[in-house]
Amino acid sequence: MNPYYSIIIPTYNSSAFIDRCLNSICKQTFNNYEVIILDGLSNDGTLQLIETYSNKLPSLKIRSEKDNGIYDAMNKGISMAQGQWLYFMGSDDAFFDGNVLATISSALSENDVVYAKVNSKSLGGNYGSEFSPKKIYFRNIAHQGIFFRKNVFSITGLFDLKYKVWADWDHNFKWFLNPAIKKKFINIPVANYADGGFSDKRKDLTFEIDKEEKYFQLTGKKIRFKILYRVYYILSDLISK
Question: Which residues neighbour 155 within 8 Å (Cβ) at sequence distance 6 or greater?
Answer without folding.
Answer: 174, 175, 178, 180, 181
